Amino acid sequence: MAHMGERRALGRSRSAAAFTQMAAGQKVGGQCGDYIQRALSNPTQPWSPELPGYIAPLPSEWTQRKRKRQSLEGQDPSTSCERLAKCSHEDAYIKGPMLGQGGFGSVFAGTRSSDGLPVAIKYVTKDEEHEDMEVEGQGLLPLEVALMTRVNSAPACPNVLKLLEWFEHPGRYVMILERPDPCQDLHRFCEENGCLDESQAKKVLVQLINALKHCESCGVFHRDVKPQNLLICTDTNEIKLLDFGCGHLLKDSEYKEFAGTLSYAPPEWFRSHSYRAGPATVWSLGVTLYNLLCGSLPFRSTLRIAVS
Questions:
Q1: What is the set of active-site residues?
Q2: Annotated binding-site ranges for ATP
Q3: pLDDT single digits (tens) 119-136
Q4: Which residue ranges are tagged as binding site?
């Protein structure tokens, strides 16, 4: 089961890499924003290949959610009808070439038939770890969809990628996402153009902090901040945070399961298998900043992270 979780998180993280091939609530916890404002660490250890991410499975929680979903569907048949109606509008988009594929499913370039708007079409396969979350007025939504619905609610943040709409099928759901043109993810951008200088890095960091503070205000914890999950619009240098597939609701208490990329995980995860949203977010910001400035990751292994 742990291996299954690892494959799933790897697939999720690859969804960000798919964007490199594009044309180039309620507020909870109040401390995350404060943590983000603090000085970031600047590690100096040598780099080695990135460690894979994973999600520790929670079958008992999934079982409870499944029972709740079945119960709610039995009480309100209109919910199922509304979801089936969503499927009939999927032909409003023309699917183009595949941009990426992973354990999560596939991402394709696409266009909206009505006006030619560039979009990304993300197909996500449901599995036994699939989670739903109830959203007021919309019933139970896949967790990733629900989190993006929250962060896209007014007032929207220009530094968070937009979910335009979504469709549901028995074994998968489909997300229609904003696709800026031209753009690249920051990892690929730095590979092709060299590391960012301090002025560029500062502009990126300000926008990323703005995105994360917005997520906090919406009660959302992204959990997988890294250059691959940041798009840069190459004509405007605007930054957009993407891929909420590893995200969860923000809470004050500790998280006992990890989702994301291990090389960006905080030391406390390796010491006690627990972490809090604020410090973990700041740690991933520090690793991201180091990567953008130096072109490498700061730690050779998880042991080095744990003893830092």
A1: 224
A2: 122
A3: 999 999 988 777 899 888
A4: 122
